[in-house]
Amino acid sequence: MKTLFLSLLMVTGFACSISAQNQANYWQQHVDYTMDVDMDVDNYQYTGTQKLVYTNNSPDELTRVYYHLFFNAFQPGSEMDIRLQNIQDPDRRMITEDKKSRIAALKEDEIGYLHVESLTQDGQKVTFNEEGTVLVVELAKPIPSGGKTTFEMTFKGQVPVQIRRSGRNNNDGVALSMSQWYPKLAEYDFEGWHADPYIAREFHGVWGDFDVKLTIDKDYVVGGTGYLQNPQEIGHGYEAPGTKVKKQKGKTLTWHFKAPMVHDFMWAADPDYVHDTLKMENGTTLHFLYKNDPKFQETWKAVQPMTAKAMDFFNKNIGPYPYDQYSVIQGGDGGMEYAMGTLITGGDRPGSVIGTMIHELAHSWFQHVLATNESKHEWMDEGFTSFISALCSNEIRGSKKDNPFENSYKGYYRLVQSGKEQPQSTHADRYDLNFAYSIAAYSKGAIFLSQLGYVIGQDKLMETLRKYYADFKFKHPVPNDIKRTAEKVSGMELDWYLTDWTQTTNTIDYGIKSVEADGNGTKITLERIGLMPMPQDILVVYNDDTRETFYAPLRMMRGEKDNPYQEIKRTVLPDWPWAFPTYEFTIDKPISSIKAILIDPSQLMADVNGENNIWQAE
User: Fold this and answer.
1) Does the model's pTM come out above 0.85?
2) Which CATH number fits the domain 507-616, given the four candidates 2.40.50, 1.25.40, 3.40.50, 2.60.40?
3) Is the pLDDT of residue 19 over 60?
């Protein structure tokens, strides 16, 4: 019955500890990387130099800095390995068929490592200590507030057998998926340092400019972050159409990339990559790199026009993509977003790869332009990405589902029923189960927005997203920022919503307690069973199939949303104060004329018990 009401009434206007920063005093650090790297494709080892100019825009003097050394996670006995061995539901990609850690079984020539061999600060040697995936650096001299310093280092690494995101020779046969591959300075912000160990979760990085030279076997084709500076020396599909490429001597080529205002740098390489390009009408160039294998051709040709459609959708509904190119690259495992590109596996199932592409492309807005701290607020990245990618898929793939977020709600209800839910404010590494993390980040994170649309109205929700992006791009927003943006757009007070949904495991459960004759009218009594407050939309269907809705705003919202069902008469009722467990209102029609009553015909309120949301005449 509820599904029937949903199909009749679903509005289709979708497509058309909490921290706070004082935006007036906002600051962020800045980095400028210059790296020169040599990759040996025979033994998968590489050496490099890195010059890093660090600008301390904080109000604090810094006496220490930290670098991430992510590849050290892929060694027996690492924190990632031990966590994998002890979590109840380990990532299936990271375990063997007999459910043992793949990391624990790595041999010396299969492990990953990243070691800093020398490091100076403005020419002076500094003391540094490698602690797993984090390098702790005691500075030779403090960096004053507003000051700059230059770090210069040499480093060496070994690419691990592909297990998670990065690695060599993945299941698709891609030689090198190079993400989290270089010594990366940790972020310092208004909360302090974020030098989290790498345990296979999320990332947080410092905005800056990258200048990277990569020397590799000349048969390898490279794609990833940044604009290629020497295409006429490189070729491989990067040269200007109709021009000749200058033949280079020797066995290697040096690829020179520059990437402005990004917080990460990824690349992938393979001798059998096909490189296709697609120029969009807005000027963005899309690059596609995939294995030259007949079984992949159909998929990777189908992905290309869909990428352009998806980018158009996100540009319209979030805001303009700020870079001139984006690359979709076969590599890694599953799908993972990076600055100006993504690594995606697969090729024999076009639908799956297209779906993954849409999701990872959406991350370019929510993670690689807005760039929340994923370790602390993973739901703001994964959840918001899941929300907008569901809308995008619904639009450009022609599925036209009544509720494109149906799977997110199902996942959330499953988590609640499991009794394993933890608050969304839990650090990404501290979830007891991967299951609980995934649902909290992706499903419940998506519902934060879809349900916010129920609270403030769908038009206000989409306006909120566009304003949020415009106001906070390149600024590392925190949860309070999306809440305040929604408040400014809607005119409502929404602290209750942010607090209950993200910092607690309080659930929403409203029900129709009774429907009784009241003279010539009908008295309806609603009850609040769950702890989380929500406004209420109530649909009444009469015997002649006419309909009307009644709207009970939540008092603490201090506002009302517009009528979401313009074609149906709506009556706005007095506010419902949260502390009152029941709420009564009377309809000026006899009970004998009523066929059914339904709470929330949109199904966008995440009510954990839909059974008590419906009353039907006997």
Assistant:
1) yes
2) 2.60.40
3) no
